[in-house]
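Page 37, continued from 36.
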């Protein structure tokens, strides 16, 4: 079952997304937040598809849960905003690099967290 979360920054950037996968596609699809290395386009892309590229410029995508340069270390690793695959894929409640202002002020807002399938 996937989750719906919002990434929100002090600069006004906001992006609502559906993460993970559903009942019928969870083994081939895992939507995760990513940013293009070339044009800084923010998107939700299939983490399981290693050949996926930026839809805007065809650049390489960097996933927020992998690239250490896209987030500050979490203050408490027990506080997880999203977890998929039994802690294989984790987004922590921490500060992430915003694609708009480039500052580490973007955070997960799980106040309207939804589950989808």
């Amino acid at each position: 079952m996937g989750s719906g979360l919002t990434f929100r920054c002090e600069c006004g950037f906001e992006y609502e997304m559906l993460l993970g996968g559903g009942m019928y596609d969870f083994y081939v699809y895992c939507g995760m937040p990513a940013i293009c290395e070339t044009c800084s386009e923010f998107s939700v892309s299939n983490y399981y598809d290693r050949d996926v590229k930026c839809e805007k410029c065809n650049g390489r995508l960097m996933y927020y849960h992998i690239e250490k340069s896209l987030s500050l270390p979490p203050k408490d690793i027990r506080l997880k905003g999203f977890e998929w695959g039994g802690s294989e894929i984790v987004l922590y409640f921490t500060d992430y690099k915003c694609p708009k202002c480039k500052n580490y002020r973007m955070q997960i807002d799980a106040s309207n967290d939804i589950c989808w399938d």
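The longest strand covers residues 104-116. Flag for discussion at group meeting. Residues 110 and 117 are 18 Å apart (CA to CA).
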